Amino acid sequence: MTNHPEILAWVEEITALCTPDAVHWCDGSDAEYAALTSLLVARGTFIPLNPEKRPGCFLARSAPSDVARVEDRTFICTKRRNEAGPTNNWMPPAEMKARLRAKFAGSMQGRTLYVVPFCMGPLDSPLALVGVEITDSPYVVVSMRTMAHMGARVWNKLGTTGRWLPCLHSVGHPLPPGTPDVSWPCNEDKYIVHFPQDPAVWSFGSGYGGNALLGKKCVALRLASWIAREEAWLAEHMLILGIHDPDGNSTYVAAAFPSACGKTNLAMLVPPESYRKAGWRTTLVGDDIAWLRPDSEGRLRAINPETGFFGVAPGTSPSSNANAIAAIARNTIFTNVALTDDGDVWWEGLTDSPPAHLTDWQGKDWSPDCGRPAAHANSRFTAPAEQCPSIDPAWQNPEGVPISAIIFGGRRPGTMPLVYQSFNWAHGVYIGSTMGSETTAAATGAIGQVRRDPMAMLPFCGYDVGEYFSHWLEMRRHIRHLPRIFHVNWFRKGPDGKFLWPGFSDNMRVLEWIIRRCRGTVAGHETIIGWTPHWEDFNHEGLEGFTRDDFNKVMAVIPAEWRAEVLSQGELFLKIYDSLPKELVYQRELLSARLSLD
Ligand code: GTP
Ligand code: SPV
Ligand code: MN
Q1: How far apart are CA 26 and CA 326, in angstroms?
Q2: Residue in 211, 586, 289 with CA at minimum distance from that of residue 433
Q3: What stretches of 87-223 show up as alpha helix (H) in DSSP?
Q4: pLDDT tens across 334-350, in order?
Q5: What's the CA-to-centroid distance between 353 and ligand 1, angstroms?
Q6: Once rounded to an integer, what is the mean pLDDT over residues 78-99?
């Protein structure tokens, strides 16, 4: 419990509005976790998995309409519309609050209101942000305990005057007397709403992932990006990875890829055998969100504000991601994966051939020939970060780790080479701002269309994206040792529709070139788009069946493709023209000029 007067008053106000049957103040203890998971089992939300195969693990199946982030129902409610910018949904705060108050009124009838204190970032970090989530979903409470520092220690940190962010959440499914509950309560009418000038979050109608675990995308990206602009730091959709070479040098990189484009995979990378034999290692600091702040020596340092993984299940296998497989062996909540007959989990890609019989993510009988996927494409695991074998010893260091390189990348079937380096910071910001990627199942809507996703932050930037680019350009003045900026693409395809690059472990080869560029120990070759490696500069030892010719294909810069690219970038720039920094317009003009010389 807390004696923080503002929090006590807020909980009282929300209790009066939402009219729950009971109020529970969370302490984050093991006993509380055990009681809540038992409650979830009793209600049918959780299926306990086979304790021999998956100790401490549960399976949840969501409503079929509540399986991913809902970008069209996500709002940034600033006082003025232009503060939210042209890429965010907006409504005047007072109007939105009136509408939501009507939604929240009585919304927790028949349920318990949980008060969940959480801290994003190590408890003793100067970067940490504290929030209090009120929720009527015990699934959210147990997930928050894995994903953030949660419970009594957070009340202690706050004292009676500490800064905190109110985060209100309801699944929007009241239970008038006599109404039976359902296993995944939610509401068809969803609202994921941010008031960055309060700052506060109000989320209604969804129980899934980033819609409901409000510390993650809502606080650690949308609200934090707003705060970061005011305080001269960066809140980004990035993994943080340490690379340790045989000579004992450690280099940390941060990489921004859009949702379901390989952050978790890269963050948990296992180097190829030839590298491991030579003594290379990688360590994980974070897999989804990075907060980056210049230290007193002018070096950019990064912390991971989360303590768990909410990772995409499909495609995760011992060969694609052995560290993730180890991390999810116990104490993991699986959502929307398939159930095996012996009480274990399965998803597409986990094994080469599927089991003969499964129960699919909707609880229906499944066989390999039934024509339906067994797991939902956005099915996920919620696992404690400390269970990852490659977790970095410094992952909870309150000061964070020093960042030498920033890597942007997306799913691009064409145009984008495997890797290139920007000429300088401003050019790097231009590369990040014009990033594109095929859309994935992480958000509801069409899948597989290339859309611009600046810095992988399109769905997560809490203010005008043009102002956000200006902030990135400005950061140059605060950082003495500027990280080098790169762009990668693991997803380029050949005419046969197959990936040109083996990816996964072999991405280590690209990382080696990147960190050696940062140290100035390898050549880069100037092209019209930036600096690139030649085959000779690229460690291809042990890369069976991948020839110089294949390398040239995956690295090719094709002017016709780049002309189309520059035109398509222009569509984004027109849309956000009012606040677009002129420096990025010049960068695009410079690229056009280099292209026309070619
Ligand atoms: P969010 O949690 O949604 O933010 O996403 P994430 O970026 O952490 O995504 P994740 O690592 O879970 O992405 C997984 C998807 O990327 C799967 O479809 C993988 O098969 C694919 N993927 C990851 N690395 C590679 C790679 O090197 N090559 C190819 N072809 N696919 C990859
Ligand atoms: C993403 O979509 O980028 C995620 C998953 O990391 S969620 O937390 O649901 O947003
Ligand atoms: Mn993400």
Answers
A1: 29
A2: 586
A3: 93-104, 138-147, 152-158, 209-212
A4: 999 999 999 999 999 99
A5: 20
A6: 98
- 283 membership: H or E segment, kind and range: strand 281-286
Residue ranges per structural domain of the chain: 5-44+69-231, 236-307+395-597, 308-387
Q: How far apart are the C-alpha atoms of 314 and 349, rounded to whole Å?
A: 6
581 CB within 6 A, ligand 1: no
Q: What is the mean pLDDT of residues 300-317?
A: 98
Using pLDDT thresholds of 50, 70 and 90, give the confidence band for residue 462: very high
**Residue among 206, 217, 264, 460 whose CB has most ligand 2 atoms within 8 A, to mutate:** 217
pLDDT band, residue 526 (cuts 50/70/90): very high
pLDDT of residue 598: 59
Q: Which protein residue's CA is at the shortest distance from atom 7 of ligand 2?
A: 210
Domain 308-387: which CATH class?
Answer: mainly beta
Residue 449, pLDDT > 90, answer: no
Q: Which CATH number fits domain 5-44+69-231: 3.40.1360.10, 1.10.1040.10, 3.40.190.10, 3.40.449.10?
A: 3.40.449.10
Nearest residue CA, atom 10 of ligand 2? 210
Nearest CA to ligand 1 atom 32: 262
Domain 236-307+395-597 has CATH 2.30.40.10: no
CA 456 to centroid of ligand 3, rounded, Å: 9
Angstrom distance (rounded) from CA 44 to CA 64 = 16
* Interval 322-333 mean pLDDT: 98
- Say if pTM beats, i.e. exceeds, 0.90: yes
Q: Quick one: average pLDDT of 103-109?
A: 98
CB 565 within 8 A of CB 576: no
Residues with Cβ within 8 Å of residue 315, at least 6 apart in sequence? 347, 348, 349
Q: What are the DSSP E strand ranges found in 436-591?
A: 436-438, 450-452, 484-488, 525-526, 531-532
**Whether the domain at 236-307+395-597 and the domain at 308-387 fall into the same CATH topology:** no
